[in-house]
Task: inverse folding
């Protein structure tokens, strides 16, 4: 289980999946998971991508097997995890790479691509919230709920919107249990800080080809509301899938992975 000691002060766990031909020099893909997840969330994507790319799946600070829980009162900003990811890729000696992100990981990834236009070859965003994602109205009740009851009851209550009505019950339970392993302090710090950013100014600064994937019935917003911010990203396009899940990277993993593979290959041909 690879772990990197980063100059940002954390220990980051990551996995590298690379089933490319050993005589080739594949491009790299950095995959950024969403809130309450870890790099294991991308399990279904690996068979499709790793035959063509070197796939790096880290656990974000405070999640999975990375550094111990983030204190609930930590001054966390959207740029902190970006600095961690940059430090990881520097340590791995990877200068340029494709970037794939889901859910609020896509919130962070848009700022990442805007900050590092010389490093990101392409950007794929799946089921990600709008650039202004004000959760202020929910933060107080959400933090009270999680503080008193833990993460699992909240995850169980909200999972139907996340994965949609057609996801198998056994799969729903797997996702609930994975998310429930998140330290409470990390989650409290995350919801109090990360969604407060307004990344609207970053959209026009994204220079790489960008693919945005959503579903027809996403709880994050209807197709037209998604299109309103997607068109602000130069050289971007929107792919709309059928269904009512907003976590399409999980509920429609095979389709999303195949479309993303095709998109990435087109950017380098």
Result:
């Amino acid at each position: 289980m690879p772990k990197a000691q980063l100059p940002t002060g954390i220990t980051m766990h990551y996995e590298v999946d690379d089933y490319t031909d050993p005589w080739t020099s594949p491009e790299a893909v950095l995959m950024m998971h969403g809130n309450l997840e870890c790099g294991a969330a991308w399990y279904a994507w690996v068979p499709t991508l790793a035959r063509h790319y070197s796939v790096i799946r880290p656990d974000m600070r405070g999640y999975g097997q990375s550094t111990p829980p983030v204190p609930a009162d930590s001054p966390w900003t959207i740029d902190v995890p970006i600095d961690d990811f940059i430090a990881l890729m520097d340590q791995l000696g990877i200068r340029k790479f494709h970037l794939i992100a889901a859910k609020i990981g896509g919130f962070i990834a848009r700022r990442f691509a805007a900050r590092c236009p010389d490093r990101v070859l392409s950007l794929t965003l799946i089921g990600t919230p709008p650039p202004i994602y004000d959760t202020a109205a929910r933060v107080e009740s959400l933090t009270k709920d999680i503080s008193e009851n833990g993460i699992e009851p909240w995850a169980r209550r909200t999972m139907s919107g996340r994965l949609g009505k057609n996801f198998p019950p056994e799969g729903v339970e797997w996702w609930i249990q994975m998310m429930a392993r998140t330290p409470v302090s990390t989650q409290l710090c995350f919801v109090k800080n990360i969604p407060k950013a307004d990344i609207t100014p970053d959209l026009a600064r994204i220079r790489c080809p960008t693919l945005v994937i959503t579903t027809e019935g996403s709880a994050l917003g209807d197709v037209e509301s998604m299109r309103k911010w997607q068109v602000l990203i130069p050289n971007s396009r929107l792919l709309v899938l059928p269904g009512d899940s907003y976590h399409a990277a999980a509920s429609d993993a095979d389709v999303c992975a195949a479309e993303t593979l095709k998109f990435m290959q087109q950017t380098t041909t």
Q: What stands out?
A: The chain has one domain: 3-267. Residues 3-267 form a domain with the Rossmann fold fold (CATH 3.40.50.1820).
